Amino acid sequence: MPRIILFNKPFGVICQFTRVDGHQSLRDFIPLSDFYPAGRLDADSEGLVLLTDNGKLQNRICSPKFKLPKTYWVQVEGKPDDVALNALRRGVVLNDFKAQPAQVSLMDEPSFLWQRKPPIRFRKDIPTAWLSLVLKEGKNRQVRRMTAAVFFPTLRLIRYAIGLYTLQGIVPGEWRMLADSDIG
Fold this sequence. Notes:
With 184 residues, this protein is α+β, with helices and mostly antiparallel strands. The protein has helices spanning 55-62, 82-90, 142-149; strands at residues 4-9, 36-37, 46-52, 70-77, 103-107, 128-135, 154-162, 165-166, 175-177. The protein has 3 helices and 9 strands.
C-alpha cells in the first residue's frame, strides 16, 4: 500500500531532501527515507506538499493529465476588481504559455493563518486582498505570474489543498502520515 505524507512547508524551505544555498530542505523536517515530493512549491511559497513512497501515485498527483485541482490562498497587493478576476477566470497569457482558466474569488484572510517569518512587506498606503485560486495545472511560479499579469502582484502564496487533501490542522513545519483508509 502506498504511503502519503501531508507536510505544511514553511517559507524558505526547498522541496527536496538536499540543502541548497543555505535553505532548509525537507530532510530538516521529515526524518523518513524513500519518500519523494509529488510536485513542488518554490522556497518563497508556503503550504501543502504531498510526499509519497510510490512512483505511480507520485505521477498521478503531479501529472496535468489527471487534472488534480490545487487550491491556493494568495495575498495580493491592491484590491482586484472584476476585470482582473474575470481575466484569471478566462486564463491569462503569460510569456511562454496561456494559463488555463482558474476558479478565483475574493476571500477573507483565513482565521487560523499563521504569521509568516519573515513577514511580508507592509505599505500603509497600499491595501492588500486575499484570493482563493484553484488551478488544474502547475507550471513554474504560475500563480505569481498570473496575478502579476493582471497587475496585482502576489505578496504571499499558500497552497491549501491538492485534490481532497488539505493542510487543515497541520502547522508550518509539521507533517502527518495518512492512514490507509484516507488515501483516495
